[in-house]
Amino acid sequence: MAPKFEKAKAIEKENIVVDGVDISGHWNRMFEQRVITEYTPELIEKIADIPNAESFANCYQCAKCVAVCPVDVVGNYGPRKLYRYAQTGMDLTEAPELWLCTTCANCLRVCPKEVNMVKIMPAAREQAILDGKFVPNELQQAFENTAKSGNPLGQPQRKRDAWIKDAGVEIPVMKDLGRKVDVLWYVGSYPSYHPRGIDAASAAARIFTALGIDFAILGKEEKDDADSQRLAGEKGLFEMMTEYNIETFNKYEWDELVVTGPHELNAFKNVYPKYGFERPVVHYTTFLARHLDKLKPMLKHPVNKKITYHDPCYLGRHNGEYDAPRQLLEAIPGVELVEMGRNRENGYCCGGGGGGMWMDSFTAKHTNMRLSEKRAMEAASTGANVLAVACPFEVSRFSDAVKSTGNEHVDVLDILELLDRSMRGE
Amino acid sequence: MNIVVAIKHIPSIADDLPVSGNNVDFDSVDFVLNEFDEQSIEQAVLVKEAVGGTVTVVGVDLIEELDNILHLAIAKGADKAVKVTADEPGADSHMQAKWLSEAIKGLSPDIVFAGVQASNDLDGQIGPMIAAHLDMPYIGGVSSVEVADGTATVNKEFAGGVGAKYSVSLPMVVGVQAAAKPPRYAPISKVRQVAQTATIDTVEPSGDASSGLTFKKMAPPVATGHAEMIDGSPKEVAAKIVELLKSKGLA
Amino acid sequence: MSNDILVITEHMDGKFSDVSFELVGKAKELASALGGQAVAVVVGGGVDANVFASDATIHIDDAALGQFNPEAYGKVIEALVKEKSPRLVMFGWTATGMDLAAWLSAKLGVPCAAYVKEIGSDLMMGCQAYGGKLMAEVAPEGDMAIAACLAGSFPAEAGQGSTAATATASPVDLGSLKVKFVEAIKPEGGDVDITSQTKLVSVGRGIGGKENIELAEELAQALDAALSCSRPVVDAGWLPRTRQVGKSGLKVKPKMYLMLGISGAPEHLEGMKSAELIIAVNTDKKAPIFNVAHYGATADLFEVAEAMLELL
From the CA of B54, how many Å to the nearest CA of chain C? Predict the structure, then answer.
């Protein structure tokens, strides 16, 4: 087989002495002396030299990461392999491998050396962007859409709150309200524009209203969090959006910021403090679980479904919330909750994180199956007829995936939609 | 290929233009890149990508705010930036064209791009004047450029899709109407990096030229007529427009 | 020096453009005030040059001048202007005139005014610059000047006549040109012909982005109209060039011209000002289009368009 990378520079030596110790391996070869092969570390150092990507060089090839890497399940991937590829001649900043990591953080969970792809990938990608290296077209389009339209879908800013008129309840907008609210609800781009996202947003509005929450949204003033664009390497864009968002958040008085999406949670809670924004931020599952005593009696209509729940990487591993979503699902009468083999801390990634949301065509060329398809098949194999999600990226991804894998009988529903159904009956 | 782009920093017409004396009050307006220059920068980078070479963007720094624009141009693919430090907000096209020509001369350009026009070209555009100073042929209204073997093939637009294709032995000056592709996205990370790392060459204005025009007056145009204004909320405006169209049998 | 006025006319496919007649008419008026002659200059062949009301018409034909060639035309005009020393040289501020006027100005060191809309008998010129937002009155110094005039600034009728042209050989050698005409480019077919529509909904820069075109398209459909636009929309790639109204686009004369987010730069007005009913919606209450439109509204175009859709 031809070598994967032509730049491989093998240094083969019959005798090697390290620190005065002869480590030549002749003693374990029966017929000839063992040849010791070394590689130049240049391409590893090239990555490790990028600020924030230093831990790339920590890898000692134990391969624990490969066992949990979601991309390896559908291809040939994982930090250990990336390190080895770099050792044998791959320049990560030029390779398609640069764009396959979803920053799901499962490798970091098991890595004894703290090789942190959540930091390495954005840094290496930014370097590639700065050096004018290859960047997938569809990703560039998402960057451009975000910069120009305020959302990666390229939808008009003025339509950001168009969905509220069909939500069935009054949804106050901060600008018109002119007073302090308890909860500022950051809706997010997909819940504002994507038809299936709008279903979840409308459900959330009805639930908040039923609970008597004093909330409002930013309406046309809301813009994308751009956290996934940051993880995909466009830090400048993220900072530009961050400046705008923080200014907008600070324009109004509110006590708590509730977000529909885990990526927004990650941005506002974990990254914005570096930019001077430190305010309470919660994901809607955490927020609603807190109101469970009041919510539970409203969940009058049974939802007789066998449901399996998919842990979003950025809600679970990145932000430690595994219980609230399950508590909410279990509060719905009639629900039988079943777990997939990979769950909670070891949950499998949908493929949408780290910019993967906008690279499906590119990723398809370098993997044998979409991550979302793999996960849809796992969901179906539990016998569940509902795949419950809590991330706005996932509804559209899994809805496509259940179809393409012949599992149309599995409904993909946001927890918000399930709660809403139980509340209103259907 | 030495590719040069001559740009113009001009008062923004997005807002009202205050007048002071007989000219625009240059101290109280925002300056922006001439929109046609965005096209000409893109066309220059497209040519570089096709045949190789370096793109040098040259502009007159009228109000000491040209750096941002030059950084953006570099982020989009230009290699070098030069500014003529004039600090003369009201410098007309003749003056700018002369200074730019002197700055460009030393770059030995094979092709010079300029925006086909700018909204403040009261004394004509810099493109054809640079061509006159550098003794190069000029073609404006250009919407695509291909370069091969010392010859440029350009499409010039007249109107309504009618145009002509010319071949020109280089060097030449091209007045860009529109690049062959819409201007590209410059990653914001890149723009910010360029702002920190790029060096901009500065040159003093050299050479003298004048438009030979004396400004006697500058004012918003006196309307010979004015539209009948429809007042009210957008909904009311919409209703009145629909009513109007219906009354004329147009809706 | 003379008090003559040279008008550089322009023609294509055997026809002179309207602006040529407009300039000749104006030149006659100015020449009689100045005590000089209005001289029409026709460069290139394949056209009947005896159509102007000029005091004289000079027709310079040469094989190298068969098609518009800015280098050849420039050389010929430069030589002619040097020879005649006129008081004023008039060009159209058009696709061809824009290649020549400023070039000639720099070449000869003669003042040039562009975007000219008015010229007084003292040669004070009114220029409509800054996208039509400001009118500048400028006085050219010296005893020769160049004026590049916006199309539609003067009546064309005054320039129409039958003065017999004097054929003249090219005053310069056109043997070694760097610019060569290759071929004519015809408009791409296949799209809607906006010049034959009775109703147009036209969008400008105010439409904001490609994602908003759909809304305008919906409104156009609801009105049984076609969608057209101003130049920036085409340059940004939001609509094809076949939809562009204006100087570098197409001239239209529909029964209804509903403008959304078009400020009304002179270049756009050239293409649509004879529409029968012009309605303009723009957020800028000082947009020049309100001086031209029959009805106007200072409002958010999106809100108006959406509300109209609900009513239609």
Answer: 23
